[in-house]
Protein: Arsenite methyltransferase
Amino acid sequence: MSEDGFQSVKTRILKIFQDLDEGELSEIKDWICNQSYQKDLENMRKLNETDNKLVKIGKAIKKIVPLSAELPDENIAPPTAGDQSDCTVANTCHVDGFLYDDDETEQLVKKGLLKRYYCLDCHSRNIKDLIFISHSMSRITMQYTFKVLLPRDLDKKKQILDVGSRFGNILYGAYYLTNASHIIGVEINQKFCDIQKQIMSKFSIDSNRVKMINSDIMECQDIISNSDIIILNALDFFVDTEQHRQIWKFCKKSFKKGSYLVTTRCVTELLESLNICEELSDWLTICKPCQLENEILFDTDDLVDIELFLYIVN
Ligand SMILES: C[S@@+](CC[C@H](N)C(=O)[O-])C[C@H]1O[C@@H](n2cnc3c(N)ncnc32)[C@H](O)[C@@H]1O
Structure:
């Protein structure tokens, strides 16, 4: 490092130090002197490498799907129950969180390819924010899921299931970020399975570890009951209220005891909105993130936006 470069790094570090009290400074000193920062640094670099791979996969998917990231044959409709029932076709816009992070979304808005507002009465300044909704988990949320939320011991014998795997983003995240030997995506739409196959072949993803199944999840009781971690995100734009109820009842019947459920929504609130909370009570227990020490690998600004829930099946 040049003299100037070193000087500039020291200035940046001093700027951080100046806001710390003596106790905090002493903790930082220990963290550096007892070398434990090295492990954190190594983990951060690995996470960065994975992120680059996921960005490349996202770029490849963007080339084969429209900007809306919804396929013409999909039957997507705003839900009539639950916390997203304020969404309507008029006030909601799908921006895929895996394909477009906040910066890219902002660029699309600047280029005029995406609007943030909708006009309430067509000719005035009486406009309103559009609701941006994503049908996919973002890279950062996936990284948090596997590196902070879930237990560390996702070893060779574990099976991860993504219910409704869409582009396969969660499968790729699990592939790069865990050692789980079986990573399965079940997706009802054949076209998304074709996209997943295309991506897996392009990025040489080991098909012995990652499998996708083109099926209705209701037909996959064996796969669910053999899974140790189940990721189930917001199906309510894709199924009607009654189908949604049936899927949750089916999950209760099929999940094995001790398995983990990860969702981006509070399950109690979701089940309440479907009027099946009592029937499914005592089924799940909410858990704290298992590897909180890894939060150090994330920007605090990014952490604010992450909404995730981890449950263990009783
Ligand atoms: C909200 S997306 C979730 C994508 C991905 N799991 C994630 O969280 O990033 C839901 C997906 O579930 C699929 N789907 C809907 N109903 C399903 C069912 N009964 N069985 C399997 N997949 C289903 C939809 O086609 C859609 O691609």
About this structure: The domain at 139-313 is CATH 3.40.50.150 (Rossmann fold).
